[in-house]
C-alpha cells in the first residue's frame, strides 16, 4: 500500500478491493488482511476486542487503544507497524517483533485497516 495515500484513499481502496477481490486479497502488495484477521483473533482480540474498539476482555492502565478511532486510522501504516513491532513502553502493548515475522506484522496491520473501515462486520 502506498504510504503517501491519504487515509480516505487508503480506506476506500481497502473497502473497494475487499468487496471486489475478497478479504484475503485486500492488500496483496502489502499485508494480507485475511491472514491478519487470524493473527488478530489469536493475539490481539483479548485486549483490543472483536471490533478493535479496545474493549476486549482484558483491561489496563493506560487503557487499550481503540484501533478504529480516527486518531489511530489517520496514522501511516509505517507508524502503526512500528508500534506493533516495538510495542509501547510502560503500557500493556508488547513488542510483537519477538512473536511475529515482518510479513505477519504487515498482515495484522492490514487487518487493523479493515477494522477501521468496519468491513470486518460485513465480510466473512
Ligand atoms: C495485553 C494487551 C494487548 C495486546 C495483546 C495487544 N495490544 Fe495493542 N495496545 C494495547 C494497549 C494498552 C495500547 C495503548 C498503548 C498506549 O497507551 O500507548 C495498545 C496500542 C496499540 C496500537 C497503537 C494505537 C495508536 O494509538 O497508535 C496498535 C496499532 C496496536 N495496539 C495493535 C495491536 C496488535 C496488532 C496486536 C496483536 C498483534 C495488539 N495490539 C495486541 C494492549 C494490547
Notes on the structure:
This protein has 124 residues and is mainly alpha-helical. It has one domain (7-121): Cytochrome Bc1 Complex, Chain D, domain 2 (Orthogonal Bundle), CATH 1.10.760. Helix content is 48%, strand content 0%. It has helices at 7-21, 33-43, 45-48, 70-73, 77-86, 102-117. Helix 2 (33-43) crosses helix 6 and helix 5 (77-86) crosses helix 6 (102-117). The longest helix has 16 residues, at 102-117. The relative contact order is 0.21. Residues 5-10, 15-21 and 24-28 have low confidence and may be disordered. The chain binds heme C. Heme C (HEC) binds at residues 43-44, 46-48, 58, 60, 62, 64-65, 67, 72, 75, 80, 83-84, 88, 91-93, 96, 108, 112.
Q: What is shown here, in short?
A:
The protein is 48% helix and 0% strand.
The average pLDDT value, as a whole number, equals 84
Quick one: CATH superfamily? Answer: Cytochrome c-like domain
Radius of gyration: 13 Å
Overall SS class: mainly alpha
Total helical elements: 6
Ligands (ions, cofactors included): heme C
Q: Describe the biggest sheet?
A: none
Distance separating the two termini? 22 Å
Strand content: under 5%
CATH class assignment: Mainly Alpha
N-to-C SSE series?
A: HHHHHH
Characterize the overall form. globular
CATH structural fold name: Cytochrome Bc1 Complex, Chain D, domain 2
CATH architecture: Orthogonal Bundle
Range of helix content: 40-55%
Poorly predicted residue ranges: 5-10, 15-21, 24-28
Please give the domain count: 1
Amino acid at each position: 500500500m502506498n504510504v503517501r495515500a491519504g487515509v480516505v484513499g487508503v480506506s476506500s481502496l481497502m473497502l473497494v478491493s475487499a468487496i471486489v477481490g475478497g478479504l484475503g486479497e485486500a492488500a496483496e502488495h502489502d499485508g494480507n488482511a485475511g491472514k491478519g484477521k487470524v493473527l488478530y483473533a489469536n493475539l490481539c482480540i483479548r485486549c483490543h476486542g472483536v471490533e478493535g474498539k479496545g474493549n476486549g476482555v482484558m483491561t489496563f492502565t493506560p487503557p487499550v487503544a481503540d484501533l478504529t478511532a480516527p486518531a489511530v486510522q489517520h496514522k501511516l501504516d509505517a507508524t502503526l507497524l512500528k508500534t506493533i513491532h516495538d510495542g509501547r513502553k510502560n503500557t500493556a502493548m508488547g513488542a510483537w517483533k519477538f512473536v511475529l515475522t515482518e510479513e505477519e506484522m504487515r498482515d495484522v496491520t492490514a487487518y487493523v485497516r479493515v477494522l477501521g473501515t468496519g468491513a470486518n462486520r460485513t465480510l466473512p
